[in-house]
Every structure is written in C-alpha cells, then in structure tokens.
C-alpha cells in the first residue's frame, strides 16, 4: 500500500479501542494533498478528516458520494466500506467490500486488504434468507431491497439493493442486528415488504409480490347522432325541400301563365299602364317560383349529407355546401339585378315610351337570365339553411367536439363580391 494508506492506518491505531479500532481494513489513499488542487482532492481530504475525527457516518457519506461521482476509482468504494464498518454499519461494509473485490482493477495488495476487511465485517452480520415467489405469468426480474429502521436522525444509511440473479432460488442477505424492512420490487409488480428483527440467529422469510392490476381502459365511445334523429332530420329536409320546390313550380306556372296570357299578350290599354303592371307582376311571380324551386333543391341536397356515418365527414360536407350556398346566394343576387335592368328600364319607367307593345312583349317574354339568377339565389338559400340546420342538430347531440359551428357572411365591395366562411373546423 502507498504512504497515504499507512498514514490513515496510523490514525486508526490511535483511535479509542472498540469495533472501529480493531477493524482490519482502513481507508486507502486518503492523505490530504499539500494544496486543494481539485474538487476531488478537497472532498477526499474532507472525508479523511471526518474519519480521523471519529465522524464515521459523515466520512461514509462523503466516500459514497465520491464513489458515485468517480466510479473509476475503487479506493472510494473500499474507504466507504471501512467507514461504514467503523460506524457499526456492517451490512453496508460487507456489501461494499464484496462489490470492491468483484472489480478487476485492484492490485494484489489491495485485494488482500479487501479480503481481510470482508472477513472482519462478515463476522458481525447475520444471514437472512429471502425466498421470493413470483407468478409465472409475470416478469421474473426483481430486486430485494433492505432498509434499516433507524432510531436516530444522525444514523444515515442508504438502502441496500440485491438483484435477484437466480430465479426460483432463495437470496441470502447479510444484515446487522436490528430492525430492517425487506422489500421486493420490480417492473410490473406491487412492492411487497416485511419488517424483520435481525439477531444473531439466521432468519428465513418469504415474500410474494403481486402483479400490478391491469387497468383495462374501455375504448372511448364514439359519439354519434341517434339513428332516429338522423332519420327524422333527413326526412324533414327531403319533405320540406320537396314541398318548397313544388310550391315553386306552382308559382312558376302561375307566373308563366300571367306573362303569356291573352290579357298581357294582346293588351289594348291605350296608356299601357295596365299592360306594364300585369307584365311585371308575371315576372315577379315567376321569379318567386324560381327562388322557391332552388331553395327546395338546396334543402334536399343538404339532407343527403345525413347518409354519411362519420360526424366529421358530415361536418366537412355541410361546411362545403354552406360555402357553395353563400357564393350562389351572392352571385344570384348580382345576376338578378343585372338581368332585370333592361326590362325595368323599359317596362316600369312611368316616363318611358314604347314603340309597340307586341315588340316589347316579344322581346322580354322569356327573360331567362332572371329566372336562372333567382333559381341560383334560392339554391344558395336552401344549401345554407339546410347545412346550418344539420350542423346545429349534430352539435346538439355530440357537443362542441362533434361539429364545429361555422358562419357564412357575404362580402362585397368595389370590384369584388364573395363570402367569408368562419368558424372552427
């Protein structure tokens, strides 16, 4: 051994007689350096001073911390064992020395001193045989942990962990006389423990840890709109759409009858006031019918979305239909205004003059653009109304997570016309 170890041994020889003074093993290589050149040297010096002053628990804690921080230096492990032995913590001394002797980086002299320390400490511990019974269906890798039950706050001792390397074979622990809590723990197991009182007679205990209960989390319930609600709502949209469309066809027929009726076609009013009024009213009735026809078609189309089983797919489809409906509503309004300007200028202006009623009637009696524009406008109204109704019904039954409300707002300005679609998707 080096001169450092000899110096520490001399300190032990002048210590008071007792278990620590008769200890065969001593901290190796702990002479304080001439100057504190590093943290490692300072901490080693401090631990050595604790040992020299008989503060063995504090010395052991310092050496254990150095062992964790510098695992490549085996002297810290041996010195921790010597300090624990001097403090009367023989189980820790035995465990540390056995680990020390299992290393391959210690010389012959150090190994001999370690064997002497083990022989000295092993005489002061008692064998506690622990039989661990594990369920066959569980993992077979566990560890046995021994924790001393201390009576003083100054008696600081860490837990000792003993891996169970041989399945189905009892594990032999070497513990100090006194109270201990022996615990079995491992992944997938609930810890099982037992308190024992160790004396001079060997003990045998049995521990049977149980598997952690497997909590079967039920799969999240997929929320869905009740089938009867789907059936009732979709049927309502079909019926209302059909009824509105039928009413629209009736208005169209009535409007077309007024436009092509003899009272308008062969009007003989010299002032043409009655002719103009009847002619204009016919178009109003026809356009109302076209709007209703488009609205009925839009309602029925939105009802088809209920055929999808996935609420999210329905939400996306209604959102798209609402967007299309908003565009159709705005575009239809623009075309209605543009398409009726020529007719309104000639037919409704009280100051306007007509070259001949027959020519005027023949030129405007069809007026297809207003009819198409009002149909498009009605289709937009039906799509928006049906889609919003579907979103509202679905949201009512699924909550905010089932369908996100959307909002369709018109947007018009100089040089542009469109819609703004907002909401959470």
From TrEMBL:
Listed name of the protein: PEGA domain-containing protein
| Keyword terms, alphabetized | Membrane, Signal, Transmembrane, Transmembrane helix
Q: Which residues cross the membrane?
A: 237-259, 279-304, 316-337
Upper classification of the source organism reads: Bacteria, Pseudomonadati, Myxococcota, Polyangia, Nannocystales
**Endpoints of the signal sequence:** 1-19
In which organism is this protein found?
Answer: Nannocystis radixulma
């Amino acid at each position: 051994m080096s001169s450092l170890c000899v110096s520490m041994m001399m300190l032990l020889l002048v210590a008071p007689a007792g278990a620590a003074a008769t200890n065969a093993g001593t901290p190796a290589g702990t002479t304080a350096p001439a100057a504190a050149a590093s943290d490692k040297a300072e901490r080693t010096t401090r631990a050595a001073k604790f040992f020299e002053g008989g503060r063995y628990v504090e010395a052991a804690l310092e050496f254990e911390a150095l062992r964790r921080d510098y695992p490549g230096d085996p002297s810290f492990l041996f010195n921790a064992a010597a300090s624990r032995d001097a403090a009367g913590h023989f189980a820790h001394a035995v465990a540390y020395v056995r680990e020390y002797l299992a290393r391959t980086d210690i010389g012959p002299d150090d190994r001999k001193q370690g064997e002497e320390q083990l022989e000295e400490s092993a005489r002061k511990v008692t064998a506690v045989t622990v039989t661990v019974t594990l369920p066959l269906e569980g993992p077979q890798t566990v560890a046995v942990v021994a924790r001393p039950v201390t009576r003083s706050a100054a008696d600081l001792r860490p837990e000792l962990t003993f891996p169970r390397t041989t399945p189905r074979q009892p594990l032999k622990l070497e513990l100090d006389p006194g109270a201990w809590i022996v615990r079995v723990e491992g992944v997938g197991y609930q810890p099982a423990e037992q308190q024992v009182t160790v004396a001079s007679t060997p003990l045998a205990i049995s521990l049977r840890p149980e598997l952690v209960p497997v909590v079967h989390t039920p799969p999240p319930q997929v929320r869905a709109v009740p089938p009867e609600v789907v059936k009732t709502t979709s049927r309502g949209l079909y019926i209302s759409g059909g009824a509105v469309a039928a009413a629209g066809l009736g208005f169209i027929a009535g409007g077309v009858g007024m436009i092509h009726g003899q009272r308008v076609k062969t009007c003989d009013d010299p002032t043409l006031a009655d002719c103009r009024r009847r002619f204009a009213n016919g178009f109003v009735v026809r356009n109302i019918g076209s709007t209703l026809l488009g609205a009925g078609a839009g309602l029925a189309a939105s009802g088809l979305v209920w055929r999808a089983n996935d609420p999210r797919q329905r939400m996306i489809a209604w959102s798209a239909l609402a967007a299309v409906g908003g565009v159709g509503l705005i575009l239809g309004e623009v075309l209605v205004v543009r398409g009726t300007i020529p007719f309104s200028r000639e037919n409704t202006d009280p100051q306007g003059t007509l070259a001949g009623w027959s020519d005027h009637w023949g030129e405007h009696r069809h007026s297809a653009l207003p009819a198409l524009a009002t149909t498009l406008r009605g289709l937009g109204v039906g799509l928006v109304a049906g889609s919003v109704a579907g979103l509202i019904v679905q949201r009512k039954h699924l909550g905010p997570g089932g369908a996100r409300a959307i909002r369709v707002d018109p947007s018009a300005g100089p040089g542009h016309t469109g819609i703004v679609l907002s909401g959470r998707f």
